[in-house]
Amino acid sequence: MLKNSVHPSTKLRTNGGWTEIIGEFPFVLRALEARVAFFSTLLATDRAKSPEKIDELNARSSALTGHGESLLSNGRLIERAMASATNTAPSGGRKLKLGIVGIGVGASEILPAMEATANIQMVAGADVNPRVRDTFRKRYNAQTYDSVEKLCDDREVEAVWISTPNKFHAPHTIIAANRGKHVVVEKPMAISLSEAEGMIEAADKNKIKLICGHTQSFGPHIRTMRRIIRSGELGRLCAVNVFAYTDWMLRPRTAEELDVSQGGGVPYRQGPHQIDTLRLLGGGMVRSVRGTTGQWFRGRPIPGYYAAFMEFADGTPATLVHNGYGYFLASELVPWGTNRSRYTYEERAAIRKQLLDGTRNENEDKDAMRIGGAQEGQLFRNRGERRPWVPNDLGILIASCERGDIRQSQHGLYVHGDDGVKDVPIVEGSTSRRAELEELYNAVVLDRPIRHTGPWGMATLEVCLAIMQSAKKRKEIMLSHQVPAPEED
Ligand SMILES: NC(=O)c1ccc[n+]([C@@H]2O[C@H](COP(=O)([O-])OP(=O)(O)OC[C@H]3O[C@@H](n4cnc5c(N)ncnc54)[C@H](O)[C@@H]3O)[C@@H](O)[C@H]2O)c1
């Protein structure tokens, strides 16, 4: 049963349009199933088509599904939605056997989604840290190894999730590919374009699937936004803007995270979330980038800020900003976001002081966030089934079309159009992490196309690098490795 909250502005749209687009998503399947049963006997009748009757149906179907927005405007939509859902939902029955390399904070974030995905089985983990290996082995009754090579020699492992530090993404991917393992690699895909090229070559040569994760562009909000844009219902996409204000710089960091040459800093680490998302919405082909980076806190030797202007090949502009210094948090801009910060204002001030006087034990703080650490539960495991969205590492994203703007709401999207604002809920079930696992499963087991391919990840990395290059040269950078966004949603 869905647990969606209901926004008062939610109304049924009776003549098709963008609500239909939502209905085509696989993750609305459960809501639709309930509604199909309920509506099917009623939609055929003339009475059901009257506005009063539709209001009544909406109220009753919302009660049935817990879902505030009607996803249905006519019978045709049901068929389309169900057909689409059948085509894209992961199925196929058998379990995909997965190994994780680098059981750190990033891995701890994805583990609950892996546990919740019935057709994924974690069979092995590798890390140089014996404490995390031990916890992983006991929790999942899995094999553990102290190197990527040993894990990739395990014949049971079919696919490898690589969440080691950024400088290892390329070598570890190539090791896995050469041993015939499919790969999901964390963002950023690599530190340089030549590394990314090597990864793509290794994947092609060994005929393995390479998915460049693990960004927020996988999320249902983004995919739904894309659907609305692509439908043309609001006219042409004219601009996309995203800005994030986070505490990224105050979270505990390892030595490699504090070194730009090893892929440290906000542009490398946070850029991919925003760039991937903007590219997905804007069609993928970025023509040029003008960017700047900022580093203004003495306690951290890496950039904690970037701002950039990207222009797509068709002239559509996009802007992106991330400030990770943690004074103002963008989550404060939404009424429901104030109590969702990792640290209080006072804690953030104390951390800054500790970083300046060298008294913070970063290794201990970071290890507390990894699997089995004191913070793991609170941060990644006991978060409730369906938390409202807040502007987190992706930030606040606004897509502007000729006849309206789209942005995220608590559980869906606000669509600001000529008729006012509508809150279109996104049905539960496909967080960005689950969606990424689905993409992996579908690619490996069902041989379905990958959306976040190697060339796609490389194009996102090119933008990321161009922001840093532009900041140094104070010039616009022209791009040459861009690829179009996939047709499939
Ligand atoms: N997508 C996201 O939301 C997200 C969130 C956090 C981290 N990440 C990504 O995860 C990666 C790791 O970052 P993190 O914050 O988890 O850091 P981390 O230090 O907590 O995790 C890295 C893990 O890799 C292990 N490791 C280091 N060298 C290794 C080697 N040679 N072989 C095997 N294991 C090795 C470390 O012991 C550690 O447990 C980064 O690429 C980061 O961008 C992504």
Low-confidence stretches: 1-89
Strand content: 15-25%
Q: Helix tally?
A: 16
CATH architecture level-2 label of the domain at 220-428 and 459-478: 2-Layer Sandwich
Biggest beta sheet summary: 9 strands, mixed
- The fourth-level CATH homologous superfamily of the domain at 220-428 and 459-478 is Dihydrodipicolinate Reductase, domain 2
Euclidean distance between termini CA atoms = 25 Å
Tell me what the structure shows:
The protein has helices spanning about 20-25, 30-40, 50-65, 75-90, 105-115, 130-140, 150, 170-180, 195-205, 220-230, 265-280, 345-355, 360-370, 375-380, 430-445, 455-475, and strands at about 95-100, 120-125, 145, 160, 180-185, 210, 235-245, 285-295, 305-310, 315-325, 395-400, 405-410, 410-415, 420-425, 475-480. With about 500 residues, the protein is an alpha/beta fold. Among the domains are: about 20-90, no CATH class; about 220-430 and about 460-480, Dihydrodipicolinate Reductase, domain 2 (2-Layer Sandwich), CATH 3.30.360. The strands form two sheets. Strands 14-13-12-11-7-10-9-8-15 form a nine-stranded mixed sheet. Helix 6 links the parallel strand 2 (about 120-125) and strand 3. Helix 11 packs across helix 16. The longest helix is centred in the C-terminal third of the chain and has 20 residues, at about 455-475. The radius of gyration is 23 Å and the shape is globular. Nicotinamide-adenine-dinucleotide binds near residues 101, 128 and 370.
What structural keywords apply?
single chain; 489 residues; alpha/beta; Dihydrodipicolinate Reductase, domain 2; nine-stranded mixed β-sheet; six-stranded parallel β-sheet; 17% strand; globular; disordered N terminus; binds nicotinamide-adenine-dinucleotide
